[in-house]
Amino acid sequence: MPDVTDNTPHVFTPSALNRLVRDLLDDALPMGVWIEGELSNVARPASGHVYFTLKDANAQVRCAMFRMNAMRLRFRPADGMHVLMRAKVGLYEARGEFQLVAEHMEPAGEGALQRDFEQLKARLGAEGLFDAERKRPLPAFPRRIGVITSPSGAAVRDVLSVLGRRCALAEVEVLPVPVQGREAPPAIASMLRKASASGRYDALLLTRGGGSLEDLWAFNDEEVARAIHASAVPVVSAVGHEVDFTIADFVADLRAATPSAAAELLVPDSTDLERQLRRLRHRMATLMGRRLQAAAQRADHWQARLSAQRPQARLARDTQRLETLRRRLLTVTRQSATLRQARLARLEARLAACHPRRRLEPARQRGDELRQRLVRAMERAIERQRAALSQQGRTLHAVSPLATLERGYAIVFDERDAVVRRADDVAIGERVRVMLAEGQIHLRRDS
Fold first, then answer.
1. Is the pLDDT of residue 2 over 70?
2. Chain centroid to CA 134
3. What residues contact 107, with CB distance under 8 A and at least 6 apart?
4. Torsion of the alpha carbons at 415, 418, 421 and 427, rounded to the nearest 10
5. How far apart are CA 174 and CA 411, in angstroms?
6. If you placed Cys at 87, which of 102, 164, 291, 370 could pair as Cys (CB 3.0 to 4.6 Å)?
7. C-alpha Rg value of the chain to the nearest Å
8. For residues 262 and 207, is the Cβ–Cβ distance under 8 A?
9. Region of 263 on the Ramachandran plot (φ > 0 left; ψ -120 to 50 alpha; else beta)
C-alpha cells in the first residue's frame, strides 16, 4: 500500500488498484456477511458453478457459488426466488468487478422459520418441557389409542394398517384435525386437550406425513407444545420423515421416525404375543404337572404315616381320657358350687347382723338429744349477750353529752360550729347556736 503522507503522486496500474481494493475488502469483512435479496440472471453452466445476481428495489450485486457449495443446496435456485445467503465479499480482479462468493444459501422464508424454530426450542427447553425426567413410558397393552391427524392423509392409512396388522384387539379412534395452515395449530392443541380430558385413551399419537419446514410448521407451535406437555396420557409424536424434527417431537413422551414406526412402538406384535403365550402355557403346564406330582407324593407319605400310627386306637384312648376328664370336671364343679353356697349364707348372716336399721333408731335418739342441748346452749348465750349489751348501753349513756344536757346544761356553738368555752371567744354582734336537751336556740351577743 502506498504511503499516503507522501506528497508525490502514486500511479497505479489497473491490476495493482484492483488488488488493493480486494485486500481492503478482505481486511474489512474477513468473516463474510449474511445478505438477503431476490435472485435474477441465474446461470448454471456445465462446470457446476452457479452464477447469479442478487438484488433489491435499489441495487444489485453479482454473485457466484462454486461447485462444492452448490452441490449442498437443498433447492434449485431460480429467477425471482427470495433467498438468504452467507457470502464472502470480494473483487474479481480480472474485470475489476465487485462480487459476492456464496458459501451457503437457503430460501429466505425457510431461514426465518428456522430461526424462529431455534428460538422457541431454546425457550421451551429452558423451561424444562424437554426434560427426560418428565417423559412417561407407554402402556404395554393400550386398549384405546387416539390418532390426531388429517383423516385423508397417507400417514393415517399407514398407522391404521400397521396397528391392524400388529394388534387387532387395540381400539383405534382417528381424531381429525388439519395438519397444515393457519387453522392447524389451534385445532391440534384443542384436540389434544379434549382427548386428554376425556379419559378415553391410554395413549395419543400425533402424526402427519413429510413436507418442507413450512409444511410442518403447525407442529412447531408453542400452543401445541404446551398442550402436549399438559396431556394426562402419554403422547407419541411422528411428524414427517426420519430427518425431520419438530418442537412436538422434543416435548412428546416418545418421538418416532415415521408414522408406521410410531404404530409399531404403540402396540405389541400379536404374533410375538401368541408365541409368548404358548411358551407361558407350556411353562405353566410343566409347573402344574410338577406341583401335582409333588402333592401326590406328599399325600402318599402322609397316608403311610397315618396307617402306621393306627388312628383308631389313638382315638379310643383319647375318648376314654376325655370321659375321665369330664367326670372330674363335673365333680370339681359341684364341690365348688357347694362351697360358694355356704360362703354366701355366711355373708348373708353377717349382713343381716350389720343391717343399718338396727343402728338408725339409737342414732336418731342421739340426734334429738344433741339438738335440744344445742338449742338450750344457744338461748343461754343469747341471754348473756343481751344482758351485756344492756349494761354497756347504760354505761355509755352515763358518759354521753346528751345525758348532761338532760340535767339542764347547754352547749354553745359559734358561727363556725366550734364549741364556745369562754365569753371572749364570741365577738359582739356575732351569732351563736345553743344546743339544749330538746331543740336549739340561736342568739346574738349584744355586749
1. no
2. 14
3. 75, 81, 82, 83, 84
4. -30
5. 129
6. 102
7. 62
8. yes
9. alpha
Which strands sit side by side in the sheet containing 411-413, from one edge to the other? 411-413, 431-435, 440-444
Determine the residue type at 337: A
Q: Which amino acid is at 231?
A: S
Is the CB of residue 176 less than 8 Å from the CB of residue 151? yes
* pLDDT tens digits, 134-156: 899 988 888 899 999 988 888 88
Residues 203, 228 contacting (CB under 8 angstroms): no
* 377-426 pLDDT per residue, tens: 999 999 999 988 888 888 887 777 777 777 778 888 888 888 888 888 88
Binned at pLDDT 50, 70 and 90, residue 446 comes out as confident
- For residues 379, 385, 387, 393, the Cα torsion angle rounded to the nearest 10 degrees is -150
Please report where in the chains the cell 379419559 appears, as a residue: 199
Give the model confidence (pLDDT) of 238-248 as tens digits.
Answer: 887 877 788 89
Q: How confident is the model at residue 111 (pLDDT cuts 50, 70, 90)?
A: low
**What is the rounded CA–CA span in Å between residue 165 and residue 153?**
19
pLDDT at 110: 61
DSSP secondary-structure letter at 267? Answer: S
DSSP 141: S
List, in sequence order, the alpha helices (H) in 255-411.
259-266, 270-308, 311-353, 356-398, 401-406
Q: Is the pLDDT of residue 54 over 90?
A: yes
Give yes or no for a contact between 253 and 138, defined as CB atoms under 8 angstroms apart: yes
Residue 18 has pLDDT above 70, yes or no: no
- Check: CB of residue 32 under 8 Å from CB of residue 86: yes
